[in-house]
Amino acid sequence: MSFTTSLRGAGANPSRRARMPPALRAYQYNLLAYKRTWRGSLTTTFLYPVLYLAAIGVGLGHLIDHGSNQAVGGVPYLWFLAPGLLAGTAMQIGANESTYPVMAGIKWLKTYFAMLATPLEVTDVLYGHLLWILTRVALASGVFLAVMTAFHTVPSLWAVAAFPAAVLTGAAFAAPVMAFSATRETDQSFVVLYRFGIVPLFLFSGTFFPIVQLPGWLQVVARCTPLYQGVSLCRGLVLGHPGGWDALGHSGYLLVMLLGGILAARATYRGRLVQ
Amino acid sequence: MSGSELDAETGAAVQARGLTKRFGEFTAVDGVDFDIQAGEAFGFLGPNGAGKTSTMRMIACLSPISGGSLQVLGLDPMRDGPRIRSRIGLVPQEDTLDLELTVRDNLYLYGRYFGLPKKQLRERVDQLLEFARLTERADERVDPLSGGMRRRLTIARALVSSPDLVILDEPTTGLDPQARHLLWDRLYRLKREGVTLVITTHYMDEAEQLCDRLVVMDAGRIAAAGSPRELIEQWSTREVVELRFEPEGHQAHGDRLADLAERVEVLPDRLLLYTDEGDATLDAVRSRGKSPIAALVRRSTLEDVFLHLTGRSLVE
User: Fold this and answer.
1) B151 to each of B105, B142, B202, how far by Cα in Å?
2) Do the Cβ atoms of A119 and B85 come within 8 Å?
3) How far apart are CA A246 and CA B52, in angstroms?
4) Helix extents (H) in chain A
5) How far apart, in whole angstroms, are the C-alpha atoms of residue A9 and residue A171?
6) Listed residue (A138, A205, A194, A136) closest to A166, CA to CA
7) How far out from the chain centre does Cα B39 lie?
8) Residue of A nearest to B163 (CA)
9) Which residues of chain A make contact with B120, given a CB cutoff of 8 A?
10) Which of A272, B39, B148, B316 has the lowest CB atom count within 10 Å?
11) SS3 readout for B118-133
C-alpha cells in the first residue's frame, strides 16, 4: 500500500464521525493545553488562597478580633473575610482568563483562526473558550472552599451553594471581559482594566471590610458594583444566612451581566474574526 | 468525491462568477470568474496585494463574499460553511500552530475539531507524522522547530480530515530551497492521490512546477488564465535574450535593438529581447557591434507573462 493510498484510505467516514458538540471540541483544546501547562497556574489556584487567608485572615484578623468584631457582624474576622476573598478570587480568575488568553487566540497563537478553518463556527469558539474559563473558575473556587474548610471558616452547610455562586461571579466577569478583549489590538488595555477596574473592585466591594465603613455616597456606589453582588451572595451562603430576596437580586444582577456579556462577545468576536 | 456533490453543470470543485470582496471602500477582489476542476492543481499567481489571499479566504468559507456568486464542492459558502470546511484542508499564509504544545498534540487537536473519533485519529496522526517527516520530533514542542518543519506540520494538519480540497496560501514563502523541494514533493503526492489543490504563490517556479492551470491576478482582477505552457505561448515568445549593458544606456540600446525582437522590455538592470530564436537574435545583436557586459539566452517563463501583462515584476 503506497503512502498516499493509506493516507486517503484512513480518511474519516463522515457518517461515523463522533458527534461531539462543536463547542466542546473547542473546549477540548483548552483542556489538553492545560494538561501540558497546569504547573504554571498552581500558585494562583492553590497557593494564593492559603497565603491570603493565613496573612490577612489569621494575622490581621487576630488584631481585629482583639478589638471589637461587631463591625463584621459578630463573627471572627477570618469568617467574614474568607467568603469575600472567594468571590474576589472568582472575579480575578474570570477576568484574567478572559484577557491575555483571548488575545493569544486572536493574535499571538491564532488558535481561534486554526479552529475557524475547521467546521467550528465563531460561536463554537466563543462558547468553548467561555466554558473553559468557567472550568478554571470552578477549579479555583473549589480549592478555595476546601482551604476555607481547612481553616475552619465554614460554619454552615449553605456553603455548598457558595460554590455555584462563586462560579457565577467569575462567569459574570468573564463574558463581558471576553467581549472587550476581542476588540483590543494590544494587551496595554488589560493593564488599564486591571488598574482601574478589577483592583479597585477587589478592594472596595466589601471584600475586606463591610461597605458601611465607607462614606455615604461611596456606599451607594459600592452597592451597585458587580463584585459586591458576588461578595454578598457568597458571604451570606457561607455564614448560613442566604437572605432570600437579596440573594435573588444579587444572582439576577450577575446573570444579566453574564448574558449581556455573551451577547456582546458574540458581536465582537464575529466582528474581529470574520472579515 | 461523487459527481452529485460537484457543481451540477460544470463538474467544478470551485466555481466563481463575478466574485467580489470589498473591505469598506477598498475592493480587494474585483469581479473574477474561474472554475477549478476536481483533481487538478490550480494556482493563483500575482504580487502581494493582488487579491489572492482574499480569494482563498472566500473559498475556505472564512470570509463572506461581497458580490457575485461562489460555489465550493457544489455548496454555498454563505449557507453551508461548516459542511464545506469539513471537506477542506487549509494551509494559511501564517501558521496557526500552538507553539507550546507538541507536534503530535497539534495534529491530534486539529483532528478533534473535525470531530474525528479518537482511536482512528491517533492512527491518522502517526501516518501524517511520517508524511511530514516529523516522526522523530513528534513529542517535542513546536516552538523550537524550523520554519520548514512548521510548514510541513501545517500541511500535515490540513490533511488530518482527508479533505477533498486543499487550499495552500503561499505554502513555501520564507523557506530555503531544500525545504521548498521537500514540500513540493509532498504536494505532488497529494495531487497524484486525486486531491484538488488550490495554491497561491508569487513564485514563478512554484507555479510552473505545481499547477496544471493558473490565473494571473493583478489589482483584484484576473489578467490571464490557462496552463503555464499556454500562458507562455499566448503571452510570450519561445525564448528570451537577457542583455546587460552599462545601466544608463539601457533605454537607448533598447530603442536601437527593437527591430531584432518581437518585443523589448527595458528593466532597470537589464534588457529583455523576446524572440523565438534566442541564439540567432544574440548573434544579430553582436553583428551590430554591440557588446553587452553579460548575455543570456533562456526559455520564457511565467515571469515574462506577468511582466508583459502588467509591466511589473512579480516579486518587488
Assistant:
1) 16, 11, 17
2) yes
3) 59
4) 3-9, 22-37, 42, 48-52, 61-66, 77-96, 100-103, 111-116, 122-150, 159-181, 188-193, 199-204, 216-224, 226-238, 244-273
5) 44
6) A138
7) 16
8) A11
9) 10, 12
10) B316
11) HHHHHHHHHHHHHHCC
Residues B154-196 have pLDDT tens digits of 999 999 999 999 999 998 887 888 888 888 888 888 889 889 9
Decide if A162 contacts A170 (C-beta within 8 A).
Answer: no
Q: Which residues contact B79 (CB under 8 A, 6 or more apart)?
A: none
Q: What residue of B is the nearest CA neighbor of A124? A: B113
Distance from CA of B313 to the nearest CA of A (A): 29
- Establish if B186 touches chain A: CB-CB under 8 angstroms: no
Q: Which amino acid is at B247?
A: P
DSSP single-letter state for residue B66? S
Nearest CA in chain A to B83: A119
Question: How is the beta sheet containing B239-244 ordered, strand by strand?
Answer: B263-266, B271-275, B239-244, B294-299
Q: Which residues in chain B (130-149) have CB-CB distances under 8 A to chain A?
A: 130-131
Distance of CA A267 to the CA centre of its chain: 21
CA distance A98 to A114: 19
Question: Measured between CB atoms, does B116 come within 8 Å of chain A?
Answer: yes
The CA–CA distances, whole Å, from B184 to A198, A237, B41, B174, B175 equal 52, 64, 12, 14, 12
Q: List the Cα angle A108/A109/A113 in 5-degree steps.
A: 110
Helix/strand/coil for B198: strand
Strand, helix or coil at B139? coil
Q: Which amino acid is at B53?
A: T
Q: Does B54 touch chain A (CB under 8 A)?
A: no
Closest C-alpha to B1, from A106, A8, A16:
A8
Start-to-end C-alpha separation, chain B: 40
**Do strands B41-45 and B196-201 pair parallel, antiparallel, or not at all (unpaired)?**
parallel
**Are the beta carbons of B99 and B143 closer than 8 angstroms?**
yes
Amino acid found at B152 = R
pLDDT at A13: 46
User: Which set of grid coordinates corresponds to residue B200?
Assistant: 497561491
Question: Per residue in B201-231, pLDDT tens?
Answer: 888 888 888 999 999 999 999 999 999 999 9
| A60-113 confidence digits (pLDDT tens) | 877 777 776 667 777 888 899 999 999 999 999 999 999 999 999 999 999 999
DSSP lists the bridge partners of residue B30 as: B20
Residues of A with CB under 8 A from a CB of B: 3-8, 10-12, 14, 16-20, 22, 25-26, 28-29, 32-33, 36-37, 109-111, 113-121, 274-275
